[in-house]
Amino acid sequence: MPYLHPEQDTTERRRIDPAIEMEGISKTFGSVRANHDIRFSVRHGEIHALLGENGSGKSTLMNILSGIYMPDQGTIRLRGREVVFRSPKDSIALGIGMVHQHFKLVEPMTACDNISMGTGEGLLQARGKAVSRIREYSDRFGMPIDPDQKVSDMAVGEKQSVEIMKVLYRGADILVLDEPTAVLTPQEIEHLFAILRRMREEGASIVFISHKLNEVMDLCDRVTVLRKGETVGTVDVRDTTPRHLIEMMVGRTVDLAIERPPVGDDGICLDVHGLIVRDVMGVKKLDDVTFRLSHGEILGVAGLAGSGQKELCESIAGLLRPQSGRILFHDHDIIGRSPREIIRMGVSMSFIPEDRLGMGLVASMDIADNIMLKDYALYGGFLLDRPSARRKAQSIVERLDISTPGIFHPVRKLSGGNIQKVILGREIDLSPKLLVTAYAVRGLDINSSYTIYHLLNEQKRKGVAILYVGEDLDVLLELCDRILVLCGGRVTGIVDARTATKEDLGLMMTGLAAHGEATA
Amino acid sequence: MDPTGFAMMIALFLASAIRISIPLLIGTLGETLTERSGHLNLGVEGMMLLGASTGFFVAVRTQNVLLAMLAAMGGAGAGALLYALMTVTFRANQVVTGLALTIFGAGVANTLGKSVTNQSTPRNIQDLFALQPLHPDLSGVQGIPVVGPVLQFIDTAFLQHNLYVYGALVGSALLAFYLYRTHSGLHLRAVGENPAAADASGIRVVAMRYGAIVGGGMLCGLAGLYMPLVHITTWVENITGGRGWIVVALVIFVRWDPLKAILGAFLFGALEIVGFRLQAIPALSGSIFFSQYVIDMYPYAMTILVLILANVRRKKGWQGPGALGVPYFREER
Question: Which of A24, A46, A282, B133 is most buried when burial is the number of CB atoms within 10 A of its CB?
Fold first, then answer.
């Protein structure tokens, strides 16, 4: 199938039926109503944003559109014709391509294999033909891809290009991008937007799912907002403001400013010097990392995924033993101490891994039990102190406004935001002196994110030193006092968050520029 | 011992090692096919026994080798289908299901085998699987110095085998070709690495997995059939003698590669008979290391060693299908 129909010009196609019309879509998972009577339509040659908080049903709706889920009710019309998808194959055949947030690529295989997978006709692979088609799209949309490179050797931006190429290769003219910018640098985002605009010019319909309102305002034509599984409405980007969109998403006004209380003056809390960490293969994961963190300060850590953030956090928490260097906590070297000793000294760690539940919480246990997990070490004794854990759980649930049927509800069944609040709540409850938090707002919606920022600021005012490993550069710039940038395990800069720009950070993250204060 | 006689002894040893490695090789191909789809079927031993018993039973009753092979594939394929139903469709635990399949297969095989216990492979089938030289008559060149003995060595070791051996070698090449050169093979590998990615690409994950598991099971059946039909030429209880378990380790040892499987299976085959041969040397026969009981342990000890080594090397490179042992459910949240 050709990618477009060149005989029809763009203006004409805009006049005829919308590319996608979804009506009355409902889908429930067990007792959870993920989509209820949703209405969503996208025109030809438009970039349409789908906005909504976590659990508002965006992913479910898009999974229905791409044939991964079957809707319980509702109809889908494509280019005016009603369709039913029984599997992703059906939706692909009708020109719908999904670029998933977590890339669906086979890492040990080459770009060419990944792109042509599932499309070939005949028995034998025709590599030459596939390669030349990939080259053609590559030139047309400005996506440099080496067909013979293994996906596992690619940078995140390149992997995303492979994902996009995959759907173009299948002849898609309706693209769904699920939070495509979450893991990209500012430069990569600009590049992605250029590609998407180029596709819009050619008449493609693009559904753009994002939390980042400035991106939506910058790139999209219209916006549809979902809330709690229902459609709130569709608006034209020219007729709206970020504030209005947030109101639609959250259902009330939200103060968008992140405050930045002044840095405390209680002296240095953490002094890291010349930290070197190697992995089992002997590859340097952290290379001569040096920084200081004061009480009442939030030090942001920025960097592409896998630049050494995890190793830094784990070294401080005592989970990983560095080859050399010093980690002084209140002038005591904590290298070589056990995680339990370090917790007792007042270092708290809330690491939100990609799957949220991997580290920190036991998914099948309830909130109270999870809170006890970390308490036992402090109180000792043979029997569990259930009543006090219950009280503590109750107070955390109330203070952080965690929505749960009760403290005995398995953590696994909570939404992502609530899970993260439980982790952070538990750490804060230990009244730490140093709080290490990684990806605290990963995947969270605006409302929950702000709750977390306020919690962190509250701790900062109490004099807690906070190491904040983050992904969203806008937030890092607003929330933190200074930002440390990691690139391939090296510190490429420590900058003042009040004066730095996103572009500066982007360049430092890719190692193209290194500046900042002396790190001695 | 004169040099020519020694060389002949080595050649005969290699030839035997190749023949004994055939059930291991075919089983390894079968399990490789299965595991490439992302399913770990530990029921190889059971499927080999199923194939051996049903195939041999039909061979004795019908004297027809094709029917016997179809029966072996059918018996073991049915076991594999059961496994696929349990693990792919109902997402049961793969390890437990595989172990159950082994116990089930052994039970069926030993029951069915009772009716053919004192029978031997029909004459016509024995003839069919007699040694088939792969070359014209060599007697003319035997007198030539150096070239003659070398040719004869190669001939004895590698060119005088039965059809099963040649078939297994061709099968290895075909499976390698399938995996690395065809669309379907690419799809199968993708399913085994990352079923979600394969699914999103429009590949039918469930169908691929069923196909690979049942196809792999059929190969295991043919592997088992070799034992009563060609190797021992009669039925004894537990005729595969744990070879199915060696296969499970071999697949890891050869890193899911059908061509490396030839060498891997040969190595284990050689190990199985090397002690036997060394026992014949008077100077060694008294040693405890060449006592029959210790010799019998070698392949299994080697299996354990292989698994340890495979795990020691684990950090580097490709470590087998990424989704091996993980069930896939599209609508999982």
Answer: A46
Architecture of domain B3-133+146-312: Orthogonal Bundle (1.10)
Q: Per DSSP, which regions of A128-173 are E strands?
A: none
Identify all chain A residues contacting B182, using CB atoms and an 8 Å cutoff: 123-125
In three-state secondary structure terms, A501 is coil
Domain boundary among A250, A265, A291: A250
CB-based contact A109 B333, cutoff 8 Å:
no
A457 in a structural domain: no
Structure tokens at B183: 């669309």
On whether both A117 and A234 belong to a single domain, the answer is yes
Q: Which two three-digit tokens encode residue B143?
A: 């007198």
Look at A473 and B319; give whichever has higher pLDDT.
A473
- pLDDT confidence of residue A424: 81
User: Which residues 28-47 of chain A have a CB within 8 Å of chain B?
Assistant: 29
Sheet of A174-178, strands arranged across: A96-99, A174-178, A205-209, A47-52, A222-227, A230-236
pLDDT for res A7: 44
- Residue A328: the pLDDT is 92
Each domain of chain B, given as residue ranges in start order, spans 3-133+146-312
Do β-strands A205-209 and A174-178 pair in parallel, antiparallel, or remain unpaired? parallel
State whether A30 and A170 are in the same domain. yes
ipTM value of the model? 0.82
pLDDT in tens, A175-215: 999 888 877 888 888 999 999 999 999 889 999 998 788 88
How confident is the prediction for chain B on average, in pLDDT?
89
Q: Which residue of A has its CA nearest to B319?
A: A108
Q: How far is CA A57 from CA A36, A150, A181, A245, B295, in A?
A: 9, 34, 19, 17, 64
Among the partner-chain residues A89, A114, A123, the one whose CB lies closest to the CB of B183 is A123
pLDDT in tens, B256-294: 999 999 999 999 999 888 877 777 777 777 777 777 788
Residue A474 counted as domain residue? no
A157 near A184, Cβ under 8 Å?
yes
pLDDT of residue A126: 77
Within-domain flag for A463: no
Nearest to A109 among B190, B315, B333 (CB): B190
- CATH number at A136 reads 3.40.50.300
Distances (CA, A) of A332 to A109, A272, A325: 47, 11, 13
Q: How many CA atoms lie within 13 A of A388 on its CB side?
A: 9
pLDDT tens-digit readout, B48-74: 999 999 999 999 999 999 999 999 999
Residues of chain A neighbouring B333 (CB-CB closer than 8 A)? 29
What domain range is A156 assigned to?
10-250
**Is A162 part of a structural domain of the chain?**
yes
Residues A235 and A370 in one domain: no
Q: CA A520, CA B205: separation in Å to the nearest integer?
A: 55
Q: A296: closest CA among A456, A88, A509?
A: A456
- Which residues in chain B belong to E strands, given as ranges? 132-133, 160-161
Three-class SS of A265-295:
CCCEEEEEEEEEEECCCCCEEEEEEEEEEEC
Does A19 share its domain with A150? yes
| Token pair 């009577």 in the structure block, residue | A37
d(CA A181, CA A190): 10
Confidence of residue A520 (pLDDT cuts 50, 70, 90): very low
pTM of the model: 0.78
For residue A23, list its beta bridge partners. Answer: A75
User: Which one of A226, A250, A274 terminates a domain?
Assistant: A250
Distance CA B4, CA A85 (A): 72
Quick one: A45 exposed, middle or buried, by C-beta within 10 A (0-12, 13-18, 19+)? buried
A vs B, Cβ pairs < 8 A, gives 83
What are the tokens at A94? 């009708």
- Segment A230-256 shows an average pLDDT of 86
